[in-house]
Amino acid sequence: TNAVRIAPSILSADFARLGEEVRAIDAAGCDWIHVDVMDGHFVPNITIGPAVVKALRPHSAKPFDVHLMIAPVDQYVQDFADAGADIISFHPEAGPHPHRTVQLIKSLGKMAGIVLNPHTPAKMLDYLIDDVDLVLIMSVNPGFGGQSFISSQLRKIEAVRKMIEKTGRDIRLEVDGGITTDTAPLAISAGADTLVAGTATFKGGESQYAANIRALRGE
Ligand code: DX5
Ligand code: ZN
């Protein structure tokens, strides 16, 4: 089937040179740009907001895959959409009405994603999957780059792949956290079609980005 998509997480980039870093991963052949938004409340870390997404937008034409680790979610969706997000994903635990949030994201013409934490069962998707464009499975607890892949999530990737096939719809299955050249093939054979990679993309400096991305694709 199709080659796996690679979405470098700019969390591992040099924040003092973010625009150049986005250009570099674009030139290195990434598919999407993964933007980790953390609020110091839903997760124990603070990163970036819509103003930074907006400032980065002119630096790449590739899809901006915005992963919201914030609570509440709804009041910021419009800001990220206006800033240039193409895909907006959120955690269902971050608000009382995930179905409404999905509709809000789609009403703005953006792709809507649901993120499952390591403890969150695939069943959470039962009454959401018919409306979403993407499912993001966390293979680490959200908050930080550089953590180790939690192997129990492979079963969940398999389960969600089956759920997606049942819908007959074109839904992306993305995996985020601890992706390396060792864990990427496991996630892919379990059914992932898109891999987020922070540490594994940015290691070794700019001259290595293209080789790092190819290695994650198994090329
Ligand atoms: C974790 C973030 C991830 C993370 C990935 O909260 O959602 O995108 O930065 O980093 P690595 O690839 O280093 O595990
Ligand atoms: Zn992420």
From TrEMBL:
- What catalytic activity does the UniProt entry give for this protein? D-ribulose 5-phosphate = D-xylulose 5-phosphate
EC nos: 5.1.3.1
Any single GO BP term: pentose catabolic process
Active site feature:
D36, D176
Q: Which GO terms describe its cellular component?
A: cytoplasm
Q: CDD domains per the record?
A: RPE
Q: What is this protein called?
A: Ribulose-phosphate 3-epimerase
Give the metabolic or biological pathway.
Carbohydrate degradation
Q: What detail does the entry give on cofactor binding?
A: Binds 1 divalent metal cation per subunit.
Similarity comment = Belongs to the ribulose-phosphate 3-epimerase family.
**Organism of origin:** Sphingorhabdus wooponensis
Lineage, highest ranks first: Bacteria, Pseudomonadati, Pseudomonadota, Alphaproteobacteria, Sphingomonadales
